[in-house]
Design a protein that fits this description.
Blueprint: H1 6-30, H2 33-62, H3 69-77, H4 79-94, H5 102-137, H6 147-176, H7 180-191, H8 193-220, E1 228-231, E2 234-241, E3 245-250, E4 255-259, H9 262-265, E5 269-270, E6 278-286, H10 292-305, E7 314-321, E8 326-334, H11 337-358
Antiparallel strand pairs: 1-2, 1-5, 2-3, 3-4, 6-8, 7-8
Helix pairs in contact: 2-4, 4-5, 5-6, 6-8, 7-8, 10-11
Length: 394
């Protein structure tokens, strides 16, 4: 049997492989190049997403301990951000290997540019929000009368809102500037900056006014979170301060929503500007016969026994008198306005009960003057009849 030469053997093997793979090559040749490139890019993106999922799972498992709570929180909060980064990396890596038409490559590069701008803006906003949340945790458990805690919470929340809005606007503007039509329109606006500037200023005035008002409130602190205020005739607490509006929680659980510029342009009452301590008053009307010294002693007894009193102010005064009653006023201080309200209600109730039970004569009453006058008919003779008065004995 004649032995085959090595070259002939290789040719036969290659020919056999070509014959076996011919159908596959014909099938691939029939697929459009666009579909092949798109499939390659999708495959690259899916691989990057799978790697991102595995990496996140490994990081979450490795940061279960309390000492790694910060890293675990960062991993949990950046889920969407990391997925967007994985998609971006997959597109950037696979784009040079795809055999796409030039128009499609240009479109994909434009999409990559927009995604990169969004990724940077999203990362900045996430960083600001994460830093603000960690700073707020330091003050969340503070007493409601802690002015320093309320000041810091207000500044952190307002600055977070303003910075996030500015980052969003810059990111949106940068994305729009990637389009040729928007750039040309922007150049036209700069060319006619006079009219365009006036129109833009008028259109954006409410938004800009609220943003600058938010910055001014964060810096000057005319009000803070949980400040007690009276706005539009309503008494309540500052519940939320955003970059554009303020929510006031009214005492009956209603919510009053006002633009933040309102607190810069209009006056309002702030009962806790420097301190939560406040003086409350109770006004009573008593009779002129009221025992004022005993009433003053009873007031001191009630106030000193109350858990709402802060031990600072306790004054009992006679402040007025009318034709019917005497007006007395009791002044007392408390650590906060809710405590002052409870103290006023308690003092008013106990003083009135004491007056009713011990000194009812001290309660307001109407006086009348009753006098007996001589009968004008005396000395006048009655006529005959059954009701005739008997004659006076001589």
């Amino acid at each position: 049997m004649e032995e085959l030469e090595p070259a002939a053997t290789v040719k036969e093997v290659v020919g056999s492989i070509d014959a076996l793979t011919a159908p596959a090559r014909d099938f691939v040749a029939g697929i459009p190049a666009l579909m092949i490139g798109a499939s390659a890019m999708v495959a690259g993106v899916l691989i990057c997403l799978a790697l991102n999922w595995l990496l996140r799972r490994a990081l979450l498992r490795a940061t279960r301990g309390a000492e790694t709570g910060f890293l675990r929180e960062v991993v949990r909060r950046t889920g969407g951000l990391s997925r967007l980064a994985a998609v971006l990396v997959g597109m950037i890596v696979t784009l040079p290997a795809t055999n796409l038409p030039y128009e499609w490559i240009d479109l994909v590069r434009h999409a990559i540019s927009i995604m990169l701008i969004v990724l940077i803006g999203w990362a900045l906003m996430s960083t600001v929000s994460h830093t603000a949340d960690r700073s707020l945790r330091r003050w969340m458990g503070a007493d409601e009368e802690n002015v320093e805690a309320r000041k810091n919470r207000t500044q952190i929340r307002v600055f977070r809102q303003v910075i996030n809005i500015m980052v969003f606007m810059i990111t949106a503007g940068a994305c729009l500037l990637t389009f040729d039509g928007v750039r040309e329109y922007g150049a036209g606006l700069f060319a006619s900056a006079g009219v365009a500037g006036i129109v833009a200023a008028v259109a954006a005035r409410p938004v800009l006014a609220n943003i600058f008002a938010g910055l001014q409130i964060a810096i000057t602190q005319p009000m803070r979170i949980e400040d007690v205020v009276i706005v539009e005739g309503e008494w309540g607490w500052i519940e939320e301060i955003t970059a554009t509006y303020v929510v006031v929680r009214i005492w009956d659980w209603r919510r009053l929503v006002l633009p933040i510029s309102y607190f810069i342009e209009k006056p309002f009452e702030n009962w806790t500007r420097e301190s939560g301590a406040i003086i409350g008053s109770v006004v009573l009307h008593v009779d002129y016969a009221a025992p004022f010294e005993a009433l003053r002693e009873k007031f001191d007894e009630v106030v000193r026994a109350s858990p709402w009193w802060d031990g600072q102010v306790s004054v009992f005064q006679v402040i007025g008198a009318s034709e019917r009653t005497v007006e007395v006023r009791a002044l007392m201080s408390a650590r906060s306005s809710p405590r002052a309200w409870e103290l006023r209600c308690e003092v008013r109730e106990k003083i009135l009960l004491w007056l009713r039970d011990s000194h009812p004569e001290a309660l307001p009453r109407d006086r009348g003057d009753l006098r007996l006058q001589p009968d004008p008919r005396d000395g006048v003779r009655d006529g005959p009849g059954p009701l005739r008065r008997p004659a006076a004995a001589e």
